[in-house]
């Protein structure tokens, strides 16, 4: 299985385990509470949303991943989402490992 698909599968598992914050407001809260470990944003999201997220992420040590389209994120989660925060360090480490091995 490709690393890209493995990462999307892990995203779906994290959703089922309740280890994600999905949507702009939930991601904003997870960042403000320092719960966000990794953030996925659809590669096709508007520049305005990207700018707002960049402002929220300033001075935060959180990796931003934008290699998946909103459609890919939506398919992995089973509901329409463009922005997702992983709040579990185990899931985030596994996803980062997959991404570093070549998405």
UniProtKB/TrEMBL annotation:
Keyword Secreted: no
Gene Ontology cellular-component terms listed: ribosome
Domain Ribosomal protein eL8/eL30/eS12/Gadd45: residue ranges: 7-95
SUPFAM superfamilies (UniProt xref): L30e-like (SSF55315)
InterPro entries in UniProt: Ribosomal_eL30-like_sf, Ribosomal_eL8/eL30/eS12/Gad45
Assigned keywords, A-Z: Ribonucleoprotein, Ribosomal protein
Any single Pfam family the record assigns to this protein: Ribosomal_L7Ae
Entry protein name: 50S ribosomal protein L7ae
Species this chain originates from: Lactobacillus paragasseri
